[in-house]
């Protein structure tokens, strides 16, 4: 079973290219984890 991880740093970005690559590699969409995280540090 394959799992995938796609990450973007802002909500204005899109997962499309990462998801397409994971699907082509044989990862099922239900096994892809999507993450939206800011690269900024909270100090």
Automatic annotation (TrEMBL):
Gene3D superfamilies: Resolvase, N-terminal catalytic domain. It comes from the Bacteria. PROSITE patterns: RECOMBINASES_3 (PS51736). InterPro entries: Resolv_N, Resolvase-like_N_sf. Residues 1-43 form the Resolvase/invertase-type recombinase catalytic domain. GO terms for molecular function: DNA binding; DNA strand exchange activity. This is Resolvase/invertase-type recombinase catalytic domain-containing protein. It comes from Aquimarina algicola.
